[in-house]
TrEMBL record:
Residue ranges constituting the NADP-dependent oxidoreductase domain according to the UniProt record: 54-318
Protein name: Dihydrodiol dehydrogenase 3-like
UniProt keyword annotation of Ribosomal protein present: no
Keyword Transmembrane helix: no
Transmembrane segments annotated in the record for this chain: none
Signal peptide positions (record): 1-16
InterPro entries named among the record's database cross-references: AKR, Aldo/ket_reductase_CS, NAD(P)_OxRdtase_dom_sf, NADP_OxRdtase_dom
Organism classification: Eukaryota, Metazoa, Ecdysozoa, Arthropoda, Hexapoda
């Protein structure tokens, strides 16, 4: 009996320590103030290319780790699974709705003013939410589905009007469907046009941004306009690049996580190269949304707030930028 009591006490103590550690991590987790008045966590859990049971398990691990910012999109075909997990957590009292920051996006095949209501309502239904924390226009181009499932087979909508779409996005804030709105994959010229003609300014811009494609001009533009930049492909998306047959224009670039300068800095801080990359981006005031289905990496990616890169580290990483030669995702139809 004494042995059972000791085991029970040890388990309770272990669980209490885990809970305490989680609260400590969440307490030091950084966040960014939005123009709309709320705050967005500096790190979120990305769900691009994650579906099915794999996503369900990974998202549970992410939430247990402390992630509260979840990034998704209708185009990822995973909102119903995310909604199921979120509903389970909220119903069980493990998290409250206001502790979560859920971001999703208007699909490019919905880039018409008359379609915005339809697709945000679909996201709300699939995510089992009353409101979204941030709603983005996923791409600056519009497509017609015409019964197709592959983007490459869809017809380009040459009548896409960013200003009319944005006006409908603003309506979503007014009617309480989303707390904030933003853009994704827009360039400076396109974003500036929205700023010059809007009633509600974009709170965020989600674009590719990483060690080899740092786009300092976009970073500066966002800071100047009070827009929070969200980085995708922060760790190089090796598996996606290999599956899609994508590569950097500069063929001499080493695999990102194997970059000698990065590895050296990681060793100095007793951190993984991935943790240093994420911290590097965060310290420039940019939010990150790393995606992983590996439990260990999900946890490691979140543990980036207990160290800081000095000026020498930051400068050494900044000069690894390769500009356009370091870009991974190229939208051939998005050039004007």
């Amino acid at each position: 009996c004494l042995m059972l009591m000791l085991v029970s006490v040890n388990i309770d103590l272990y669980c209490a320590l885990l809970t305490l550690n989680l609260h400590m991590i969440i307490d030091i987790m950084e966040s960014y103030k939005l123009q709309s008045g709320g705050r967005m966590p500096a790190i979120g859990y990305g769900t691009f290319l994650a579906t099915g049971l794999e996503l369900e398990k990974s998202l549970n691990i992410a939430l247990e780790t402390g992630y509260r910012f979840i990034d998704t999109a209708i185009g990822y075909n995973n909102e119903p699974i995310i909604g199921k997990v979120l509903n389970e957590w909220i119903s069980a009292g493990k998290v409250t709705r206001d502790e979560l920051f859920i971001l999703t996006k208007l699909p490019c095949f919905g880039n018409r003013p008359e379609d915005v209501d339809k697709y945000i309502k679909q996201s709300l239904d699939d995510l089992q939410l009353d409101y979204i924390d941030m709603y983005l226009v996923h791409l600056p181009i519009g497509l017609f589905k015409n019964g197709k499932s592959e983007y490459s087979e869809m017809e380009l909508d040459k009548s896409t009007d960013h200003l009319k779409i944005w006006k409908k996005m603003e309506e979503q804030v007014h009617n309480g469907r989303t707390k904030s709105i933003g853009l994704s994959n827009f360039n400076i010229k396109q974003t500036q046009r929205i700023i010059d003609n809007c009633k509600i300014r974009p709170d965020s811009l989600q674009n590719e941004n990483h060690l080899y494609f740092q786009s300092p001009e976009v970073v500066e533009f966002c800071k100047h306009n009070g827009i929070i930049l969200i980085s995708y492909s922060s760790l190089g998306m090796k598996s996606f690049r290999e599956a899609a047959g994508l590569s950097w224009n500069n063929k001499q670039l080493p695999e990102m996580l194997e970059n000698d300068v990065l590895v050296k800095i990681a060793k100095k801080h007793s951190k993984t190269p991935a943790q240093v990359l994420l911290r590097f981006i965060n310290q420039k005031g940019i939010s990150v949304i790393p995606k992983s289905t590996c439990p260990q990496r999900i946890v490691e990616n979140f543990q980036i707030f207990d160290f800081k890169l000095n000026t020498e580290d930051m400068d050494a990483l900044r000069i690894q930028d390769n500009g356009e030669a370091g870009r991974i995702v190229r939208f051939q139809m998005i050039k004007k």
